[in-house]
Amino acid sequence: MSGDRTDSVSVRAPAKINLDLSVGALGDDGFHPVSTVYHAVSVFDDVTVTPTGGGLELEVTGEHTDGVPLTPDNLVLRAAQLVARRGGVQAGARILLHKGIPVAAGMAGGSADAAAALVACDAAWRTGLDRAELLELAAQLGADVAFALVGGTAIGAGRGEQITPALARGQYHWVLALSEDGLSTPAVYAEFDRLTAGRALAEPRVGDEVMQALRSGDCVALGKALRNDLQPAAFSLRPDLSDLLEVGLEYGALGGVVSGSGPTLAFLVRDHEHALDLSVALTASGACEVVKRAHGPVHGARVGDLPRLT
Ligand code: ATP
């Protein structure tokens, strides 16, 4: 059987930024416990799955394809394999991954792809996995995958995979300052370990200020409360990011923070107009080459319209 378009399922999954990222000491398991506030923003990847007679084929298109592996360790293929194993699926799939999320940017693009692939394969192969099963498979694929399934604004504990929705009000507008070169997450954590060596780190805990700002939907308070324990490590590896943060704040952002392990800087602004002003100012200043405007929170991975064939 070779799948046709009527069998295809397309799923869209969002990028995330971290409004707060509190990092604890390296555990015996080799991981840092975190407590974080995830926020899904309107930058998306799309995964389209068409069932076939057997085997998995992957094609990657879109704005951001450099650095995306086409090997079996691509998170899309790993996710498809987990669904096939769990569902006892004999069929294969042709998978198209369309990337709008920058790679190695601290925006969990690979995790969004994994979440989208879990949902798309489950629907295309009719394996009927329930929410709990999808979340369990997500946790096997990476710390941020569960959040990409859920979306919205949520607290992540453990390695980030234990998700509880946050009480949050309002829509927020962001200007994302992107870097040409990515930062490796393990390298940023290694730098964090170096910078914090010999210091006793507290249990990770999200700040009361950020939760209070979200509860009241107060963007000015949220701007002040943005925080990331990995930021000094990201700045140590990329001092230009520290300058860029200063520039964004000077140009009137309500706040700014490195997203995850960076190098993306997320600037909070008041509204769409403010986002346009800051984007123009940042690019004109020469401090940053590429900016993206986004809003959040947005939904997690869900079945959407098929992309138009061109
Ligand atoms: P992390 O999720 O590790 O914090 P990140 O959000 O900064 O990382 P990603 O875009 O997820 O960045 O990419 C991290 C790495 O994951 C890439 O450099 C790439 O080698 C690998 N990877 C595996 N599958 C994918 C995928 N589908 N898309 C992008 N990268 C992938």
TrEMBL record:
The entry's active site is K16, D144
What InterPro entries does the database record attribute to this sequence? Answer: GHMP_kinase_C_dom (IPR013750), GHMP_kinase_C_sf (IPR036554), GHMP_kinase_N_dom (IPR006204), IspE (IPR004424), Ribosomal_Su5_D2-typ_SF (IPR020568), Ribsml_uS5_D2-typ_fold_subgr (IPR014721)
Enzyme Commission designation: 2.7.1.148
Which residues, if any, are the signal sequence?
A: none
Catalytic activity field? 4-CDP-2-C-methyl-D-erythritol + ATP = 4-CDP-2-C-methyl-D-erythritol 2-phosphate + ADP + H(+)
GO MF entries: 4-(cytidine 5'-diphospho)-2-C-methyl-D-erythritol kinase activity
Enzyme group, top EC level? transferase
One Pfam family here: GHMP_kinases_N
Q: Which keywords label this protein?
A: ATP-binding, Isoprene biosynthesis, Kinase, Nucleotide-binding, Transferase
Domain annotation GHMP kinase C-terminal: ranges: 211-285
- Enumerate the residues binding ATP: P102, V103, A104, A105, G106, M107, A108, G109, G110, S111, A112
Which regions form coiled coils? Answer: none
Q: Report domain GHMP kinase N-terminal positions.
A: 74-152
- Does the keyword Transferase belong to this entry? yes
Pathway listed for it is: Isoprenoid biosynthesis; isopentenyl diphosphate biosynthesis via DXP pathway; isopentenyl diphosphate from 1-deoxy-D-xylulose 5-phosphate: step 3/6
Q: Which family does it belong to?
A: Belongs to the GHMP kinase family. IspE subfamily.
Function as written in the Swiss-Prot or TrEMBL entry: Catalyzes the phosphorylation of the position 2 hydroxy group of 4-diphosphocytidyl-2C-methyl-D-erythritol.
- What name does the UniProt record give this protein? 4-diphosphocytidyl-2-C-methyl-D-erythritol kinase
* Gene that encodes it: ispE
